[in-house]
Amino acid sequence: MRALFGQGFWTRNETLVAIVIIAFCALAAFSDPRFLSATTLTDLLRASIVLGILAIGAMLVLISGGIDVSFTAIAVFAMYATTVLTLGTVPGLPWPFIFLISIGIGAALGAVNGLFIAGFGLPTLIVTLGTLSVFRGFLLTFVGSERISKLPPQMREFSRSMIVRGTTEGGSFYALPLAFAALVAVIVLTWFILHRTLLGRSIFAIGGSVESARRIGINVRGTQCFVYVYVGALAGLAGIIHGSLGRMADPFSLVGLELSVIAAVVLGGARLTGGYGTVTGTLLGVALIVLVQNSLIVVGVPSSWQSVVIGLLILLGTGLPAWQARRAAERAA
Amino acid sequence: MSSASRSRSPSGSPSDTPSDRAGRRWQRLIASPEARLAIITVAVFALMALLSPERFLSAGNLTSMAFQFPEFAILALAMTLTMMTGGIDLSVVGVSNLSAVVAATLLASFAPAGIGTAASLPWLMLAYAVAIAIGAAAGAVNGLLVARLALPPILATLGSGLVFTGIAVALTGGSAVMGFPDSVAWLGNGTLFGIPVPLIVFALLAIALHTVLTRTRFGLRATMYGANPMAALYAAIDTGRLLIRVYLVSGMFAATAGLVIMSRANSAKADYGSSYLLLAVLIAVLGGVNPYGGRGKVIGVVLAVLSMQFLSSGLNMLQVSNFARELIWGVLLIFVMLVNLRGGSRH
To answer: What CATH topology corresponds to A37-296+305-315?
Structure first.
């Protein structure tokens, strides 16, 4: 088997997570056959759009050797500010422009993180903890703290556009919103940057060792700056999608989700120490978190146990490889 | 290490004029984060006292501040200890809520209803003991994850924090546990010789932590480990045992904070104090604790707590919204990091 899948296949996080996902689905299908339906699938895919985009961003930061906890605040800031701005100026603005504004605001806020991290060399966790409360505090104090349910018409229009829709034989309705295409685009773009450009190699390199990267002539500050601006832009996109799909601009939403997103990324095998992480792993991590958040009840676990399960998954998912590595090191010694 | 800050020799060449020496003394004073923080604390206090003298300086406000800050200040002490070793404990809020929920359930469901103060004391002691024991056990779990599995502390405590919170949610179904004997209120709302009890608890814990960090082998080793884990290992320190004890103590501090919160809220819930995690990290860093380990003083953390509370209360008097307070906290955190950076960090 080992030869069939190549070295290390069975000990990789991706494999472990995939096995857990398959086991979970098998168990769910066994206890409720209706679980295996187009409706469940599209519901889960729909639930993973925002989480997925945020997770791809968080993964990029982890690969670069940092950690970002402010992206949820950026997402909600960009979404709410864009909504207020659009309603106040051109309510009829076509949705691609609304999205661009939100992405732009996100990128600008990401640049603030980049300034402190790349410019002043402050620790990433502390900076982003600080900017998390700055962005959120600024939003709620100066932009607004009221929920807006009357969104610009084009945002509602966007949320009604579907890639596929239909009715299953059982008579239940299923639909996959256009927003899913945004997730796919983000995945493809990020994969391309990471694996087909020099910039991507630089991100891996500074995550592996900043000093070595600097010595081979990589522009460490520029690369770090790009990472935080890109993550900010992704957060802006995720935020506006969240607002559109939920048909509500809620300034209190999203913040608090950051640790779940990081959990998904870490489950997928990205290392907090930097230099390692895969898009596939991250997506599997997101899939597992979404499954646990939405379908725990189907396998007979009350949903109040949700965070216990996610916490245990994180500890197992990161502890098992760490323990294996330790044993291997002891055997070699 | 604490002695590192005093390592510069007191140079006293004969040609020194008194004003030179005074200038140098001033510079040396400014060079330590604690001294800068003391100045900031006094400045914040003075500013708030100027802006709203009759209300900020009123006895009522000063007392209410003394009741408000100990709960998150104790969490900040727990954070300080783990940060000294270069770690972090993101599970403190989870641990404090889990301990409080269990203690609360014990008191609300098992203690006979409507008993007098004297009769409820054994129950109270039992509940406190159980809560602290749970804190210690939860901390030991964190310690094992960090020391034996070599998980990064951020991950280990992030995961375990979710588990602890989750267990508290599962135990209570997410609702608040209430209906205690009246004696529960003393820890959070009572006074002893006119001093608020939570303030006394905080002061005792702060003095204890200061003594442990500066006067005991355990504290010295924890600091050494934070400064250079490899060197600590080569110095024949049992780093595994050390880390387990560090996180265990952190868990016990968190449980104590949980009991204070329970007493003040007269209930326990799985999601109380969720904003305290950020606040605890913020206070520790503000207090000059190096998040990479090896440097930090309890006095700095105490000053940071005071300045945060003055700022927070003062802004409250000035009718500033809670959200603006969050904004100002974040700005303060980044500002202090920048100042410490320019003030010549030794790391």
So the answer is: ABC transporter involved in vitamin B12 uptake, BtuC (1.10.3470)
